[in-house]
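Board notes (copied after class):
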Amino acid sequence: MRISLSQSINFKLTMKSSNLNGLKSWQVERKQNQKQVKNNSIVSILFLIIIGLFVYNIVTTNKIKTDVEKYQTSIDSIQTKIDSVSSINRELDNKLAALDTNINQITKEIDLVDNNINVIKKKTNEKIVVVDHYDNAELNGFFTNRYGN
């Protein structure tokens, strides 16, 4: 079995072409693997960034809770002041109610005095009207009886 030169060249060319096809397919697979590794790397990096943001959020949230505690202390302090002012306000309201009662009593006494004054004025006016109608002899008798000689 002898192989001719042309057969030998064809065989070599076929081998080279199959080797080239194999090399090309290997290169294509390699590029696909590189893309897949690159995509996996990107996904891993994004996953790490998300975990980092989650941890940062937890740490920051704890800091906010601390600030809320400061405000709670301030609120408690203000509430204590409000309670003391409310207590003072109740005391003042009680004093005001007592003063209002006293004012009402004094007003009633003033009304009684005013009524007495009005009664005295009325009696005085009645006497003046009567005295206005006296003649000289009656006036002389009136003043003599009232003041003496």
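Comment from the instructor: The chain has two helices and no strands. Residues 8-147 form one domain.
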